[in-house]
């Protein structure tokens, strides 16, 4: 891991904008049913390292199952910007594709086997 650096990010229409301190060497991809469909490369960071600059009113939230995971996306353009993972609710998973100057296809990532995580009964 390297030292986190400050990055600016936004959705496609720029209604939602944020800054985040991120270590680009710690990327992950998940194979759970939702992450598989959105095919995003994510970077987990503590809540304190994420600052929403604008667009709070333009964010919509998708939750299901245990209602712990919260997936945030822009109401206008539909782009997923970040989420709060069920397995690490004290962190955000930031969509690397929304970071200015970052090419997600060039990041090395680990695969999180979310498809095998059992939901509590």
Throw out a few tags for this protein.
121 residues; mainly beta; Metal Binding Protein, Guanine Nucleotide Exchange Factor, Chain A; seven-stranded mixed beta sheet; three-stranded antiparallel beta sheet; 5% helix; globular
Describe the overall structure.
The longest helix is centred in the N-terminal third of the chain and has 6 residues, at about 35-40. This protein has one helix at about 35-40; strands at about 5-10, 15-20, 25-30, 40-45, 50-55, 60, 70-75, 80-85, 90-95, 110. The protein has one domain: Beta Complex (Metal Binding Protein, Guanine Nucleotide Exchange Factor, Chain A). With about 120 residues, the protein is mainly beta. The chain has 1 helix and 10 strands, in the order βββαβββββββ. It is globular and about 35 Å long. A hairpin with a 6-residue loop joins strand 1 and strand 2 (about 15-20).
Largest sheet: 7 strands, mixed
Give unreliable regions as ranges: none
Radius of gyration: 14 Å
Question: How much helix, percentage-wise, in residues?
Answer: under 10%
Number of helices: 1
Name of the CATH class: Mainly Beta
- CATH topology category name: Metal Binding Protein, Guanine Nucleotide Exchange Factor, Chain A
In round numbers, the mean pLDDT is: 92
Oligomer: single chain
What's the structural blueprint in terms of helices and strands?
Elements: E1 5-10, E2 17-22, E3 27-30, H1 33-38, E4 42-46, E5 50-54, E6 59-62, E7 70-74, E8 80-84, E9 91-95, E10 109-112
């Amino acid at each position: 891991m390297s030292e986190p650096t400050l990055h600016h990010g936004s959705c496609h229409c720029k209604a939602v904008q944020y800054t985040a301190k991120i270590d680009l060497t710690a990327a992950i991809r998940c194979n759970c049913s939702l992450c598989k469909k959105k095919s995003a490369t994510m970077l987990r960071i503590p809540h304190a390292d994420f600052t929403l600059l604008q667009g709070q009113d333009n964010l919509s939230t998708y939750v299901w199952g245990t209602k712990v995971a919260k997936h945030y996306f822009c109401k206008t353009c539909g782009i997923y910007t970040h989420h709060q993972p069920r397995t690490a609710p004290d962190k955000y998973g930031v969509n690397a594709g929304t970071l200015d100057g970052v090419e997600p296809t060039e990041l090395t990532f680990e695969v999180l086997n979310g498809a095998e995580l059992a939901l509590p009964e």
